[in-house]
């Protein structure tokens, strides 16, 4: 299992950012290997993020090469390069 954490900054009002995220939700639900995605707010200053749970590195790599992934900066009007971390899960507490 792979965890991907993306942190981004946007000048969009929170309501508009959430509207756009909801509109794109079906596309993310259709991604093979994406087990879960959490949409998060990081503080009050226009910082948001996504926590993605992948079944494998291969699924993550396919997503990273997709049009959907490349559309994120425009869709959310990102104002600087996002911070992206990829972590290998060693084990999980619960099944």
| Main structural class | alpha+beta
Q: In sequence order, what are the helices and strands, one letter per element?
A: EHEEHHHE
The averaged pLDDT comes out at 95
Categorize the overall geometry.
globular
- Poorly predicted ranges (pLDDT <50, ≥5 residues)? none
**Rg (CA only):** 13 Å
Major sheet attributes: 4 strands, antiparallel
Strand order of the largest sheet: 2-3-1-4
Tell me the distance between the termini.
13 Å
Beta-strand percentage range:
25-35%
Count of strand segments: 4
The helix content is 25-40%
Number of helices: 4
Secondary structure: elements and pairs:
Elements: E1 2-9, H1 14-29, E2 34-41, E3 47-54, H2 57-64, H3 67-70, H4 72-75, E4 83-88
Antiparallel strand pairs: 1-3, 1-4, 2-3
Structure explained in plain terms:
The protein has 95 residues and is of the alpha+beta class. Helix content is 34%, strand content 32%. The chain has helices at residues 14-29, 57-64, 67-70, 72-75, and strands at residues 2-9, 34-41, 47-54, 83-88. Strands 2-3-1-4 form a four-stranded antiparallel sheet. The radius of gyration is 13 Å and the shape is globular. The two termini are 13 Å apart.
Describe the structure concisely.
The chain has 95 residues and is α+β, with helices and mostly antiparallel strands.
Keywords:
95 residues, 4 helices, 34% helix, 4 strands, alpha+beta, single chain, four-stranded antiparallel beta sheet
């Amino acid at each position: 299992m792979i965890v991907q954490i993306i942190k981004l900054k946007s000048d969009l009002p929170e309501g508009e950012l959430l509207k756009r995220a909801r509109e794109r939700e079906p596309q993310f639900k259709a991604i093979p290997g994406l087990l879960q995605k959490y949409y998060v707010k990081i503080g009050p200053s226009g910082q948001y993020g996504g926590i993605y749970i992948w079944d494998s590195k291969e699924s993550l790599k396919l997503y990273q090469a997709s049009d959907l992934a490349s559309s994120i900066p425009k869709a959310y009007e990102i104002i600087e390069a996002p911070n992206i971390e990829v972590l290998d899960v060693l084990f999980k507490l619960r099944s």
